[in-house]
Design a protein that fits this description.
By secondary structure, this protein is of the alpha/beta class. It has 10 helices and 5 strands, in the order E-H-E-H-E-H-E-H-E-H-H-H-H-H-H. It has a 5-stranded parallel sheet, with helices on both faces. The longest helix has 15 residues, at about 195-210. The radius of gyration is 18 Å and the shape is globular. The chain starts with 20 loop residues before the first strand and ends with a helix.
Length: about 220
Amino acid sequence: MMPVRSHIFSTTPNGKKNIRNRVLIVDDDIEITNLLHLVLDPNEFEVASCHTGREAVELAKKLHPDEMIVDMYLPEMDGIACVRQLKPRVPSLQIIMLTVYEDTDRIFEALTAGASGYLLKRTPPAKIMESIADVHRGGSPMSSEIARKVVQSFQKPNSSPNETDQLTAREKEILTHLAKGFTYKEIGDEMFISDETVRSHLRRIYEKLHVHSRTAAVVKFLKK
């Protein structure tokens, strides 16, 4: 089967970005790439794809996707390295790791690098599509097996120096709401502050915890 992929996103007649979510798929498995192209609703998503890590970094800089689905192990540069390069440059970019591996160290390495979600490749296509919409709304989708590993890791004692001691009470309150799955707007409503103020607090939290995503920040906060 020939790959049904594209390296470009369309534009409106006036040259502006199409209003659909732009999704960049990065996977060297042609069947997975083709499947995602087919299942992502063209009324909601505009899809492009590539097959190597290095190509993914270049395309992301050029195409400005809203979300990326990235395989953990890629030719030339692995998925985690892609995340490390892209998140500091484009903090708003939402990245979901898609992999066959359930290794706890790699899961946290990906989340700390800036990934917002982590799905196994056996995840049903409809669930993957739902997860992209979820991460766009501010969620952090994970396969149930991955979520269990994350929860278990929170329950392990951690004797290393705690960066969360630097956080203010308000910053800890924001992280507590994020851990419960609140969106930025819901946090703002709960704390009587604007969405932009929430984002401003998060930028300071990222600096203090040395992370690049809300998922990584919540992980560090809950492991304190």
